[in-house]
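User: I'm new to structure prediction. If I give you an amino acid sequence, what do you actually give back? Let's try with this one:
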Amino acid sequence: MLRLLIPAILLIVGLAGGYFAASFLAPPDEMTCSVEDEDCEPAPTETEDEEAESSDSAFVRMNNQFIVPVIQEDRVSSMVVLSLSLEVPPDATESVFQREPLLRDAFLQILFDHAYAGGFDGAFTHARNMRVLREALYHGAKELLGSTVKSVLIVDIVRQEV
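Assistant: Good question. You get back a string of structure tokens that encode the predicted 3D arrangement of the chain. For your 162 residues, that looks like this:
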């Protein structure tokens, strides 16, 4: 009986802890006022300028992930898996999909070069390393797409030791 009681207690404590953590860490309400305020106003939302800026871009997610082997001492020591997206004007999304095989080839070459240079060793997600990788990917995309590409976003990145 004790073997069944302990997991049940742990389950209840875990659920209660999760509930209280979520309620404690939840974002504040939409209203920006205190109890004493008589005229409570909703929190400001996006202005028209911000809405116009956000609609000036479309984000095109590359269809498949990129898998990059990391070689150390003539053997594969780990694999890096990345998901990339491109920020482009809304009318350029179709041209990105049409050139995706060329983009994938260019991105893979850049990723392999980055891995060979040690960019995925150690603290590979350090801001400096990520900035170098993002800039290289951006320049590769710019060569193929010209000024239509605004930025390259690294959506997901993970390294798995082999």
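You can read the tokens as a compact description of the fold. Here is one thing that stands out. Residues 2-50 form one domain.
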